[in-house]
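Structure tokens please, single chain.
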Amino acid sequence: MSEYNLQNSTITTLLERRSIRQWADEPIPDDVIETLQSVAQHAPTSEFLNDWSAIRITDSNVAAQLAEIGNQPYIAQAPLLYVFVADEHRNMQIAQSHDAEFTEDTVSFTSSYRFVQAHNDVILAMHAMETAANSLGLGCVYLGSILNNIDRLIEILHLPKYTFPVLGLAIGKPAEEPMIKPRMSQSMQFFENRYPDTDDTQFTQQLNENLADFDKRVHQYYDLRHADRPVAAFSNQVVKNAQKDLAKKNITTPAAAQGFQLNR
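Here you go.
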């Protein structure tokens, strides 16, 4: 037996997390908002550059536009709504204020490495905020759908050069209690020292067995949740997504327009 308490409140909060898309029509108190924002600020940040920002949406018209972009009406109904942004604009301003000499082609802030690291910082901050919100009994959902039209989103939020939208986060008091989605076997996602050889017969057999079990559990989950709208098993969803045309969701062009050079 481990000496650690594996049933503490933090672990329970993380294991019971689920996406909430319906909220009570109740505002989030200011002290809660300040605490959630402080928690996000205490997440790790690459090289301590703090290269992210978050835009809180309080204008119902802006929220409605985000809901239209995402094609998800519930976005506009969230009591607390943020868009998190990879932000090198602030660092560029700081560097320029110290008379640093550089060009857009040479400064590190516009490189693909910094773009990815800023993106990572956003995710860490968002996850911290979401976990804190869940621990308070609130419910959240991440909003990748707001990237359906990146150019329009940038325009709506007046994002300056050297910034880029990453994800939205909606928070509120839950008005629903959905089931927790099943997770795949740990042996399918956690490996030791190296990635498994997919030509290994034993590994392939174990993978197929675990996948069959996961397919069954995922199919059952969606059958119980949407009895009137059957959803395919996990592997079928993977195949369906593999065939999606994501040309309209290409980030290279809008990222370049924002000053990031993803080929550098």
